[in-house]
Specification:
The chain has two domains: 199 residues, NAD(P)-binding Rossmann-like Domain (Rossmann fold, 3-Layer(aba) Sandwich), CATH 3.40.50.720; 92 residues, UDP-galactose 4-epimerase, domain 1 (Alpha-Beta Complex), CATH 3.90.25.10. The chain has ten helices and 13 strands. Bound molecules: nicotinamide-adenine-dinucleotide.
Amino acid sequence: MKNILVCGAGGFIGGHLVKRLKNEGFWVRGVDLKFPEYDETVADDFMIGDLRDQGFCRAAFDTRFDEVYQLAADMGGAGFIFTGENDADIMHNSATINLNVLDACHKRNIRRVFYSSSACAYPAYNQQDPANPKCSEGSAYPAAPDSEYGWEKLFSERLYLAYRRNHGLKTHVARYHNIFGPHGAWTGGREKAPAAICRKVALARSGDTIDIWGDGQQTRSFLYVDECLEGTIRLLRSDFTGPVNIGSEEMVTINQLVDMIAEIAGKQIEKQHIDGPQGVRGRNSDNRLIREKLDWAPSSRLREGLEVTYAWIEREARRNAR
Ligand code: NAD
């Protein structure tokens, strides 16, 4: 039976990934600072510890795992990444994790390693027109990400590729684009736009007004977590290194996202546009490369994933209010 290690297994995507790998019949160890917040872990073994600590990291990599998925990062939505207040932590913490993980993989002679980079690595200058953002993989350079989070992702992408070149690890790098779904942060400051809007709509009554950061004309695409996992596993088990986008090509404005969620909730919701951190004006996944290399690309509709996510957040919000 294959042994698999998931770093960041207490987080949103890592928690879903552990479930998926267990369903496929593998032995899975999860590693994180914390257990998953909204669900019991189904990992065979779960080590609580800090991957910034080299000693702990080596202990977690105590065997020659067949596959390693590195998802651990100091991370959050726009309210965490774009205020500037967390920049030093974001860069230091995530870079240290990646340095330690790769060193441990190399020393254990672990071959297959997946790394989750981000669409935040793309240059801000290609994402100023909300109708025509450019996010093809080759456009990442000349580099100019709009956040330190994006700069750390670029650095770490290069680190994974350097270990492949110099030490023969089969590293695979994906750039995720706004992954959403149930069991993710939905309150507390680290939540992303879909979860934050689901929460605001769930807590509102029909006819109420909710706050939206910016004018709502900024565009994004959002990928449901199950498809993110499918792309992640396919990439790791392929011969393709990446970096490659794992995202949806169904681009919407934030105003359209709000309207879609309000419709799912069956509520009349008014929007009040207020100042707030927003990131780039436009972003969409470009799936030409993933289609070409993996003969696969995400295909589910945004609305389907939002229905599941809204139902979960509404339940959580109701439970919290009690
Ligand atoms: P998440 O915050 O839910 O999960 C990250 C996990 O890493 C958390 O559980 C956290 O406790 C853990 N972690 C942080 N520091 C650690 C440390 N020092 N030692 C051990 N564990 C530590 O985030 P997520 O949404 O599941 O994202 C997973 C990965 O995908 C991250 O690398 C993120 O940058 C990347 N990504 C996510 C998205 C998205 O939309 N969710 C988009 C682009 C990239």
